[in-house]
Amino acid sequence: MRTTLSVIKADVGSVGGHLTPSRELLQVIQGHLRQHAGELLCDRFVGHTGDDVALLLVHTRGAGDEAIHQLAWNAFVAGTAEARRQGLYGAGQDLLKNAFSGNVRGLGPAVAEIELDERPSEPFLFLAADKTDPGAFNLPLYLAFADVMNTPGLILSPKLGKGFRFVVMDVSSAEVDRVIELVTPEEIYDLATLLRDTERYVVESIWSRATGEQAAVVSTSRLHNIAGRYTGKDDPVMLVRSQMDFPATGEVLAPYHLGHFVAGCMRGSHQMPLMPVRLGSSVSFFDGPPVVSCAAFSLHQGRLTEPVDAFDHPFWDTVRHRVAEKAIEMRRQGFAGAAMLPMSELEYTGVVERLERLDKRFQVRTRC
Ligand code: 13P
Ligand code: 13P
Ligand code: MG
Ligand code: MG
Which residue from 166, 169, 215 is spatially nearest to 187, judged by alpha carbons? Predict the structure, then answer.
């Protein structure tokens, strides 16, 4: 059976600032899906990470299906109405257009979809991050799929050893989709050259070279390309299939022990370490730190098992402590240097107007 996993995610309002959606908002979204899914869905899961609500929809209609996207859009519209009713902050934040037009891409919500022929056992991971952008997944994906120091499967398993094909998107291109395909291991230096620039080049998908099967997909939307102003970070979602021809679940999770610095946190304008957290976690310190959650599932004949909370293990408590210390250390330098994002990433904020005003006050002094 060809199954499609569609994750569609949006921030449509949150309690107490950009912290977390309300219980009622989540209930309204779940209720909408329950009432209106009809025969469309085989199964579903609704979760939230920080202030972002993600719908994992299982169906057989393929990626980009209008009815599935419409269902998700309508659920978020219903959630927005509830957010307005409760006076939540940023009600409808990620619904940037008023009308649905066939597909939620380009309308604000983030989308990650994968079509697959179910293996006898189909383990997969659903990761969602808040207060950061899709480039946050560049390093963890590179390590999991291309670095033998992280993934011994690359030498232990003949199929993994054939390598992977990475599709990388240039997210600075607003009008057209600019993508490049690179294969590992031959082109790892080229891949690393692009992936180091997380604000411009983002892994969109990864494919097995042994079987041609898709291993991973990341949402790659850039809200400021759609809105033309800062409306929040692009808080990404990702699906990764694991085991057998793909890296093991533990190899996919391992890179998150790094707490690597990512773009985002307060007003989407800083560099802060990414903290792996439990499902349904909020954010706190400095509207952060940026967080990533992971629900592990097995899929069978279109049905999901219960989610296993992959970062809910004593090991990750130590990581969280280290990441918190790293975050505090970075915040000690306030707006200075590496703590804040470069100008190119701030261009959709008030900094531009301030600089324009100040620019007029500069005087040219003659050198003597
Ligand atoms: P299994 O032998 O249980 O499949 O586990 C192998 C593995 O991938 C462990 O990392
Ligand atoms: P979100 O993108 O998660 O809504 O956060 C916006 C923000 O500016 C937080 O400081
Ligand atoms: Mg928000
Ligand atoms: Mg968010």
Answer: 166
Q: Quick one: which atom of ligand 2 is closest to the CA of 230?
A: 8
Nearest one of 307, 308, 252, 309 to 56, comparing CA atoms: 307
pLDDT computed for residue 148 by the predictor: 98
Q: How much is the pLDDT for 73? A: 98
Q: Does a cis peptide bond (omega within 30 degrees of 0) precede residue 276? A: no
- Of 296, 289, 328, 327, give the one whose Cα is nearest residue 312: 296
pTM: 0.96
pLDDT-flagged residues of the chain (< 50): none
Report CA 109 to chain centroid distance, whole Å. Answer: 11
Active site residues: 11, 230, 233
Question: What angle is formed at CA 255 by the lines to CA 122 and CA 17, rounded to 5 degrees?
Answer: 90
Are 291 and 283 contacting, i.e. CB atoms less than 8 angstroms apart?
A: yes
CA distance 85 to 70: 22
On the CB side of 322, CA atoms within 13 Å amount to: 13
Supply angle C-alpha 338, 342, 346, rounded to 5: 130
Report whether residue 160 contacts ligand 1, using a CB cutoff of 6 Å.
no
pLDDT of residue 174: 83
Q: Which residues surround ligand 3, an ion (CB under 5 A)?
A: 11, 18, 51, 90
Helices (H) and strands (E) in the chain, counts: 11, 16
Which candidate, 14, 50, 22, places its Cα nearest to that of 284? Answer: 50
The size of the chain, in residues, is 368
Q: Coil, helix or strand for 259?
A: coil
Q: What is the pLDDT, as a whole number, of residue 76?
A: 98
Measure CA 293 to chain center.
10
